[in-house]
Design goal:
- This protein has about 425 residues and is α/β, with parallel strands linked by helices.
- It has 3 domains: about 200 residues, 3-Layer(aba) Sandwich (Rossmann fold), CATH 3.40.50.450; about 160 residues, Rossmann fold (3-Layer(aba) Sandwich); about 35 residues, no CATH class.
- It has a 7-stranded mixed sheet with strand order 3-2-1-4-5-10-13, with helices on both faces. Strands 7-8-6-9 form a 4-stranded parallel sheet, with helices on both faces.
- Helix 4 packs across helix 5 and helix 8 packs across helix 17.
- The longest helix is centred in the middle third of the chain and has 22 residues.
- The termini are far apart.
Length: about 425
């Protein structure tokens, strides 16, 4: 699309909300460069909505920076966010939405680019609604969880980098597990969907992955069932002559655990963030699973030591791989082009499908009942998931038809074959 040579009036603001993701600086860079080329002033607002909702102009101005091209021209290589980020929810703070509108108007902002997940998008939609057309919003979706329903199954930016680094880390742990003859339980991010955990495990050739989508969506996930899956994988590997492995678990399982069971296992209250989510960082999911499995082996007179590792925070601020470097430039550029096109009068989420701008209006993007975007879950009926499962070492129907294999696994847990099938056979209904 040829650049519009007409100078535009007004200022453009940009902020980052939610958790970090590789490529944030690429969006900031592309937005700033294209806006400055169109003669707009660009204000980078630090810490998401945090200072906007306070309604204190003097305090806000301490946390706003006018951005020039030279400030951002090379930052697309870097992880993290030069504007930092926060999880402040404007709708949860009395007067927060109205204060945000006033502060943006004080800055003379006519165009606003937000980048974040569904909570940041919802905050933008509420501020846009209160602004009554005086500020136009473009939201750039990001999450390493890859759980936003973008057109044609497009990935969210940050996911590919997180999967790339996660695969390297898990591959290294696979080698370590083989060298030291032990098991690892690796927790990967994915509050609602297990795309990242499954993508990492599939790429790295991990022994198995467990995602919340494989459980009954209408019921809490029992921690004992998660432990059963890993325990039977350990037993099956032993029966096949190997005593090591890596299980990758999606952190979202913690959110699906029964709250009372979770509190009992944690031994403390579970805090919620401003959007009403369980603080998953406070839930030691890997440790909970490890403790349950180790206790089972101990009760049978065997010392079994698992090592639990949470790789979530290691992935979020990684330097983006070329895919996300390029992708975020497309997104940032198109966010500005969308805002400056007089044909586009609605606030929208920016996506780029097959090289073309494909905006999704806030009305279509956000469910009015849940006040969130729809979630893209792992489709456990898909061929892609079936491929992933076919390479995992998990108890399946064929195993239960192998008398020798069942006998060996049963012997490890001091049961006969009939008792073993009765106890663990339900796992093989996949």
């Amino acid at each position: 699309m040829p650049r519009n040579s007409t100078a535009h009036s007004g200022n453009l603001g940009i902020l980052v909300g939610g958790g970090p993701a590789p490529g944030l600086n690429g969006v900031i860079s592309a937005v700033t460069i294209e806006a400055r080329r169109n003669k707009l002033k660009v204000y980078g607002i630090y810490d998401g909505y945090k200072w906007l909702v306070k309604g204190d102009e003097k305090e806000l101005m301490k946390h706003v920076k006018e951005l020039e091209i030279q400030d951002v021209s090379r930052i697309h290589f870097d992880g993290g966010s030069i504007l930092r980020t926060s999880r402040t929810n404007p709708a949860k703070i009395p007067g927060g939405v109205e204060n945000a509108v006033k502060m943006l108007q004080k800055l003379g902002i006519s165009y606003m680019v937000t980048t974040g997940g569904d909570d940041t998008a919802y905050g933008a939609s509420q501020i846009a609604k209160a602004a009554k057309g005086t500020i136009q919003f473009a939201h750039v979706p990001k999450t390493i969880d890859n759980d936003l329903p973008l057109p044609n199954n497009l990935p969210t930016f940050g996911y590919q980098t997180a999967r790339d680094l996660g695969s390297v880390l898990v591959h290294n742990l696979m080698e370590d597990s083989k060298t030291t003859d032990r098991w690892y339980v690796v927790v990967a991010m994915g509050r609602h969907a297990g795309h990242l955990a499954l993508g990492i495990a599939k790429s790295a050739g991990a022994t198995l992955a467990i995602v919340s989508e494989e459980f009954d969506p209408k019921k809490p996930i029992p921690i004992d069932q998660v432990a059963d899956i890993i325990e039977t994988s350990i037993l099956k590997r032993r029966a096949l002559g190997r005593n090591h492995g890596v299980a990758v678990v999606a952190e979202g399982i913690a959110e699906r655990l029964d709250p009372e069971e979770l509190r009992a296992l944690q031994g403390e209250s579970v805090e919620l963030d401003s959007y009403g989510h369980i603080q998953l960082a406070d839930v030691e999911l890997g440790k909970l699973i490890k403790n349950v499995i180790e206790k089972r082996f101990a009760e049978r007179g065997e010392k079994m030591r698992l090592v639990e590792i949470n790789i979530g925070y290691v992935l979020r601020c990684a330097s983006p791989i070329p895919y996300d470097q390029e992708y975020t430039r497309d997104l940032g550029y198109n966010a500005v082009r969308y805002l400056l096109n007089p044909k586009h009068k609605k606030n929208a989420m920016i996506t780029v499908d097959n090289g073309k701008l494909t905006p999704l209006t806030f009305e279509k993007m956000i469910n009015p009942k849940t006040k969130k975007t729809e979630v893209r879950y792992v489709d456990v009926r898909s061929d892609s998931y079936k491929v992933a499962r076919s390479y995992m070492v998990r108890l399946d129907k064929q195993d239960l038809l192998d008398a020798d294999l069942v006998g060996k696994m049963a012997g490890y847990v001091k049961m006969n074959s009939k008792e073993f099938v009765k106890r663990y056979g339900y796992l093989a209904k996949y």
